[in-house]
Amino acid sequence: MALSHSSVDAEAAARLVAFGMRPKQLPARDVVYGDLVRRYGEDNAFKALTHAVAAGLGLMVLEVNQQAGAVLAATDESVFEIKMDSYARQAKIRERRETEKVLHGLIHLATAALGYPRPDDLANDTYIGRVSVEQVDAMVREAARMLDERAAAAEANNDPLADAPELEQAWRAYTRRPAAAATKDGRLAADTTRGMVSRALRFLADQGFLVPVSDEQGGTYRTTPRYQIQVRELAADAAFDDLLSLDVVAVANAGGTLRATSSDTL
């Protein structure tokens, strides 16, 4: 029995959503994917149907274009939402305590801020940022130092930080850990902060948000259009603004290579 036009359209919309769930697959590398993305941009009815199919699966369509493909985000309680336990397994995190969740949240926040430190970077679809393990670690440590000074000053003035940003909940735990230490076989110890950062960046690369560039600075990556769209959503988070407001990040040159203002010798 032949399928109706509505059934064919629904199948096509579902296929576009399915493509979006394969993070490393891009429209430029798949003719069918490219055609579906093109149709999404030209056919409002198909666009609405795609959003409806995604919503039924507990997903939200953030963007669909030829550079990034279909970029999706899981809604709260969606079966596709990445829970901490799932992230812990994929990133090989040994401990899943609340402290670990907050520390890895800081790492991901710092990575996004380093990749796109200015509003213009997020608005420019051609912008490519670069981040490294050492840069992310240095940024979080410098932010922690500044938050430490802020808390000390507030305490000295008998003025507790009632409106403290979310970042201030985790800086002590981060700075207590060593930045780097080698295991007996020469690998980076898992419980060091750079070990944590390294796993987080590899996880982002597996999700199609970053692409490995070199082994320099503990591992250097470039950002992707898919990640830029995700960070645009993150930019609305208060914690992201709090981190950028500390002025820990500085742009080294116009080519998109970024550095932390603190020393890399931490």
Summarize it.
With 266 residues, the chain is mainly α. The chain is built from eleven helices and seven strands. A hairpin with a 3-residue loop joins β1 and β2.
Index terms:
266 residues, mainly alpha, two-stranded antiparallel sheet, 11 helices, elongated
How would you describe what is shown here?
This protein has 266 residues and is mostly helical. It has two domains: 7-74, no CATH class; 84-246, no CATH class. It contains eleven helices and seven strands. It has a three-stranded antiparallel sheet. It is elongated and about 65 Å long. The protein starts with a helix and ends in a 6-residue tail after the last strand.
Please mark out the parts with pLDDT under 50 across 5 or more consecutive residues, or reply none: 250-266
Please work out how many helical segments DSSP would assign.
11
Rg (CA only): 21 Å
- How far is it from the N-terminal to the C-terminal residue, by CA? 68 Å
Strand order, main sheet: write it out. Answer: 3-5-4
Strand count, sense and barrel status of the largest sheet are: 3 strands, antiparallel
Beta-strand segment tally: 7
Shape: elongated
Structural class: mainly alpha
Please estimate the helix content.
40-55%
Order of helices and strands: HHHEEHHHEHHHEEHHEE
Summed over residues and divided by their number, the pLDDT gives a mean of 76
What's the domain count? 2
Strand content: 5-15%
